[in-house]
Amino acid sequence: MRNTLLRSCLLASGAAALAIGLLPLSVSRAEEQPRLLPPPALHAAQPHGLQSVVLAGGCFWGVQGVFQHVRGVEDAVSGYAGGAKATADYETVSTGTTGHAESVRVTYDPARISYGEILRIYFSVVLDPTEVNRQGPDVGTQYRSEIFATSPEQAQVARAYIAQLDQAHAFSRPIATQVSALNGFYPAEAYHQDYLFHHPDNPYIAWNDLPKLRALQRLFPDRYVEKPVLVSRPPA
């Protein structure tokens, strides 16, 4: 399987894999680096009770790992969004033919953290939003960046924030992140849950994802919590 090969190469040696050309990673330009972005100018109303949004930004291991350390996040579950339930499994999604994106359902308490702050962390720390159908060494539509909104207001705020960042030239290229209505979220297999927490010494995690955690701690010190909110039971 192509994506298994890519990650196996990273486990062996990212540098060696690049040297023999196994990773389709462009080294001709630097990726966008984490930076503290301004908050959204358009704010969502503060609803009562827990809320959720589904965020795709490359491999779900890192996306989940970051949001599990964000104060006000109650749950972060890796899974698949954008495709049908029948094909929402890792082997099939990894073919890049199902329409799914590797995603994370972030459940948060709006009394403790706003939706706008969730988006701010997402664009500041989690991904390079200028990439199309890839993040780092992972390439394919399943690694696209996309916000799956759970309400029209969430979608409106996300689109306005993207326009705001583009207008301010916050990145060197236009933001490629899509915004869509969530039509279904399917939790990933149990072995994908809490992957960063359980495998911090995995070279893929060390290279791609632990720097994101350090950026979260550096850029959002008031939002960073040392103890992650883990998935305490297998996905339903």
Automatic annotation (TrEMBL):
Enzyme Commission no: 1.8.4.11
Keywords from the UniProt entry: Oxidoreductase
Domain Peptide methionine sulphoxide reductase MsrA: 53-204
Catalytic site positions: 59
InterPro entries to which the protein is assigned, alphabetical: Met_Sox_Rdtase_MsrA_dom, Met_Sox_Rdtase_MsrA_sf
Signal sequence range: none
Entry keyword Transcription regulation: no
Family, as annotated: Belongs to the MsrA Met sulfoxide reductase family.
NCBIfam families: msrA
Catalytic activity: L-methionyl-[protein] + [thioredoxin]-disulfide + H2O = L-methionyl-(S)-S-oxide-[protein] + [thioredoxin]-dithiol; [thioredoxin]-disulfide + L-methionine + H2O = L-methionine (S)-S-oxide + [thioredoxin]-dithiol
Function: Has an important function as a repair enzyme for proteins that have been inactivated by oxidation. Catalyzes the reversible oxidation-reduction of methionine sulfoxide in proteins to methionine.
Enzyme class: oxidoreductase
Domain of life: Bacteria
Gene3D superfamilies the record matches: Peptide methionine sulphoxide reductase MsrA
Protein name, UniProt field: Peptide methionine sulfoxide reductase MsrA
Organism of derivation: Rhodopila globiformis (Rhodopseudomonas globiformis)
GO molecular function, one term: L-methionine:thioredoxin-disulfide S-oxidoreductase activity
